[in-house]
Amino acid sequence: MSDSTPDGEEEGKKFGMVSGVFIPTLLTILGVIMFLRLGWVVGSVGLVGSWAIIGLAFMITTTTTLSMSSIITNMKIGPGGVYSIISRSLGLEAGGSIGVPLYMSLALSMVMYIFGFREGIRMVFPQFSSLLIDLVVFGILFIIVLLSTNVAFKIQYVILAVLVVSIIAVLLGGQTQEVSYEFTTGGRNGSFWIVFAVFFPAATGIIAGANMSGELKEPKKAIPFGTLAAIAVSFVIYMVLAYWLARSASPDELVTNLMVMIERSYYAPLVLAGLLAATFSSALNSIVGASRILQAMGEHNILPGSDWYSKKAATGEPRNAILITGVIVVLGLFLRDLNTVAPLITMFFLLAYAIINVIILIEHQLELVSFRPLLKIPLAVPLLGTFGCFLAMFIINPAFSFVAVVVVGLFYYVLIHRHLESKSRYGDVRSSLFVALAEWAAKKSNDLPRAQKRAWVPNILVPTKNPTEIRGISSFLRDIAYPRGSVSMVGVGMEKRNVRIENQFKDISKTFKENGIYYDWTIIEGKDFETGAKNSMQTLKRSLFSPNIAFFRMPDIVNGENDLKEVMKSATENRLVVILFADHPTAGLGQEKRINLWLPKRCLGWAPPEKPPNCNLALLIAYKLKVNWRAELNILVPTEDEDIVENEKKNIHGLLEAARIPVDNLEVKPLSAEEWIDQAPQADVNIFSLHSKPDFDMIRDRVHKAESTCIYCRDSAVESVLA
After folding, report:
1. Tell me: the pLDDT tens digits for 490-522?
2. Most exposed residue of 132, 201, 384, 479, measured as fewest CB within 10 angstroms of its CB?
3. Are 138 and 329 in contact (CB under 8 A)?
4. Predicted pLDDT at 436
């Protein structure tokens, strides 16, 4: 085809390794710092010192490139380069939190490259207006990119030719003095690390090719090989030029004369042309890469207006994203000086590189079957890359490093609340990461005694024949489980699975998920409720979040009482506490503002350090409801003897103090619960201890007399209100 480029792009403007990755990356790395700052680096720290700085900078970018390449050869990468890599590994929220600042950094990088190009022009034409030059150069760049990326990439060959000729012109000149192989760690212009900070941005162009991931013929091959080849070539060029500079001028001249490379070259106009070509190509690659990241984020609705800037023209160009990027660049041009934010731009690049290395560290540790990269790298590579990126960040500018981390964190916080995953068809490794952490925690917890009273949280098992009956009390389950508990619902007594019932369980699960409660459900087929409930308790008691509470609703009919008694007996045998929920037919849970807790006589004989008998769960549930409802808690204590009322109050105060339960009112009366209940303070819920042989008629009578829902709690040997 006539539109093909020398490396054989196919129809649809798909680019190959050379034009799509190698050349853009090489031209971005060989930029203004090479022409105007490398001499200053050599003069400041000596030849060996400059080689060390070049080597360290390229070590960081090489390890990051190897990590990036390993990820790319293990997945189908989409448009957006680094944004796509992070999104498909750690989720859209992580991708967006890095992608947004990275996009802005690329756009503002274009502004800085235009400023560099302008300075080269003013060396020849000092009378020209700076702003006029900036706007004209931007206009040319913008028109090229807006017309066609294919045209932009063809221009790269001309720019590369100019750059090669300019480097040859440099090497043919100079070299008039002996080389001093000195290594200066601190001297003319500060410490080794200050000089490193000035040089390092030269090595941050490694994502120029990766940003074209959506328009490459074979990204799995083109990005790794093209980027690594560009790094290797540019590394050799920097090392050779450092040697040439050390041979061509004294350290003092190198430090004071930033134009020394141009002045000592064989033919200065050629080198100036190289400087202009380098800054022009870097600006071109910045707007091309930035618009691709914005368009990719638009496909996932990361920012407002995504439907508009995610669209592509008939030619495949992200025209709308290019227009938005152009507006940002023009606004940046009118700022006139980006020196104050330039370090922040570098920080965002480094943070993105660090996360790429972290992804490989996570994948290595998870050891998932799905992690089968064609390019396998040792664990030392991402470790070195991660350490190098964070080291460079905090050496270059600790304050801006902190700001960059905070900005990314804020973006992540905003995006996590937008539920972006429902808009993505791609998976990531986050669930596997948390499963791995859970497995580690499970193994550790198995080494500890099973009954950890201080670690007790309400993990509720809810056997039910019909999930519909749970829908009305899901808020109550949430309130006794929140914030660290869990709810496991089991459909039992069903002869076969039913799609409608499964959908009901799924709908209920949304309530718990929205409130941050861990929730799961299953269906156990069986002939009756009793068998299914017993099987569920035995099956789940050794699970990771093993239930410690068996929750039952009061049966509507007398025929269900015998089955329920047997199931509650089985729960006690399986060391589960029992909650029996006897709801009032009309009052429900009322306004959730007042709780009555009835303490039985057997609690009054409590003395430390023993546990109060069969009062622990009732006290704990009352406390959970008080906190989550922000309700008033009344303690009501029936006693048989009026003479001991004051003594019993003293005992209860001691129990409450030891249990650290805040109480609003405490009443002790010489009445039975049945005599007192219809005279007691009106409450939204009344909580009682549950006898081992419950009287269901008495329970129904109390619901009627109290005109409220009643909760009955039976202890096991595990929980303790004194823990």
Report:
1. 888 666 666 777 788 888 877 777 777 888 888
2. 132
3. yes
4. 64
Q: Give the Cα separation of 470 and 511 in Å (integer).
A: 12
Domain that holds residue 682: 583-723
- Residue 705's pLDDT is what? 92
Do 42 and 103 belong to one domain? yes
End-to-end Cα, the chain, rounded Å: 78
Quick one: 115 and 151 in the same domain? yes
State whether 652 and 549 are in the same domain: no
The pLDDT mean for the chain works out to: 83
Which segments of 191-305 does DSSP mark as H helices, in order? 192-199, 219-248, 251-256, 260-263, 268-299
* CATH number of the domain to which 333 belongs: 1.20.1740.10
Q: At what angle do helices 268-299 and 130-147 cross, to 10 degrees?
A: 60
Please state, in angstroms and rounded to a whole number, the distance separating the CA atoms of residues 409 and 387.
20
Q: Kindly provide the residue ranges of all beta strands, DSSP E only, lying in 74-197, ordered along the sequence.
A: 186-187, 190-191
* H helix or E strand, kind and range, residue 68: helix 38-72
What pLDDT digit, counting tens, does each position of 113-138 carry? Answer: 898 888 888 888 888 888 899 999 99
d(CA 520, CA 490): 9
224: preceding bond cis by omega (within 30 degrees): no
Average pLDDT on 631-655 reads 84
Q: Is residue 300 over pLDDT 50? A: yes
Which class for 460: exposed (0-12), middle (13-18), buried (19 or more C-beta within 10 A)? buried
> Which pLDDT score is estimated for 215?
79
Res. 11: pLDDT tops 50: no
Among 682, 689, 650, 679, CA closest to 666:
650
Note whether 523 and 588 are same-domain residues. Answer: no
Q: Is residue 447 part of a domain?
A: no
Q: Can you give the pLDDT at residue 181?
A: 66
Residue listed under structure tokens 């756009």 = 107
Peptide bond into 373 cis (omega under 30): no
- pLDDT-derived band at 448, boundaries 50, 70, 90: low
**What's the pLDDT at 494?**
64
Residue 135 resides in a domain:
yes
CATH number at residue 497: 3.40.50.620
Query: What value, to the nearest 5°, has the Cα angle with vertex 318 and ends 315 and 323?
Result: 125
Place of tokens 């060029």: 237
Q: Please tell me whether residues 383 and 465 are part of one structural domain.
A: no
Of 357-366, 488-497, 530-539, 560-569, which range is least confident?
A: 488-497
CB 718 within 8 A of CB 629: no
Is position 435 within any domain?
no
Residue 262 burial (CB count, 10 A): 25
User: Is the residue at 439 inside a domain?
Assistant: no
Q: Do both 414 and 476 map to the same domain? A: no
Residues 29 and 141 grouped into a single domain: yes
- pLDDT category at 438 given cuts 50, 70, 90 is low
Report the pLDDT value the prediction gives residue 10, as an integer from 0 to 100: 39
Residues 31 and 94 in one domain: yes
Entry pTM: 0.68
80: tokens are 């957006």
534, 563, 581 — which closes off a domain?
581
- Number of structural domains, the chain? 3
Q: Which of 520, 546, 581 is the last residue of a domain?
A: 581
What distance in Å separates the CA atoms of residue 161 and residue 159, rounded to the nearest whole number?
5
